[in-house]
Amino acid sequence: MKLLRIGSPGSEVPAILDSDGAPRSLEGVVDDLAGDVLADMSWAQGIDPMELPALSGDLRIGPCVAGTGKFICIGLNYSDHAAETGQTPPDEPILFGKATSSIIGPNDDVMIPKDGTKVDWEVELGIVIGKEARYVSREQAPDHVAGYCVVNDISERAFQLERTGQWIKGKSADTFGPIGPWLVTPESVGDVANLSMWLEVDGQRFQDSSTRNMIFDVPELVSQVSKFMSLQPGDLITTGTPPGVGLGMTPQVYLKPGQVMTLEIEGLGRQRQTVVAYSA
Q: What are phi and psi of 195, to 5 degrees?
């Protein structure tokens, strides 16, 4: 299944794509694509999307998950990305947080924060938790995944690397967490360890890689994170980015108002964001 949320910010309704790729309303079937719905997916059994009400018109796609409690990020999970940033690949996953207030829809504008000068892009595979996970093994981990989505882990590198404190400073500005367009359930993804992924800015391709290049794969990440914190339905783990970020360019390249980012992961859909200047 490819699940999504459609409507203006704060008023999204749950939906599902039919066999023609058109959105159909899930209103009356589920309240929203949030934790309790993701924890028990039995509601999806026997659903024929073609029999659900069609949604038409110029529809905004919102974040594919509602009410995310934790937005956990994995750092330096591609060895070639670690190399381009001049850092050693880790022996175990690097964890940091991203504020849930950064979450926006996949095609919403990305705003440069006040005093931001080094805003960067990162196409990433997102894992959405279904069943609560606490000290789960690698073998058990897939049973706790509701699905996958595209994430653009927008980063302000000066805040992240040149200011005192943790990476979360450079990761959490409003609009820095586009997710979606779809939450794709595991049976519809195929081999999550071998999905092509790319990102372009104004039509120039900067990132072009595959999830097969991750150092720590999905089962390992879910297992490892669950050792340090419990994971609840609707929580999001974004799994790191491949090389090609602006920080790694010579000279470095950062986003400016008016530029457009386009990014895609095979089978999970495409995002498109316009960069805008800060406004209060």
A: -110, 130
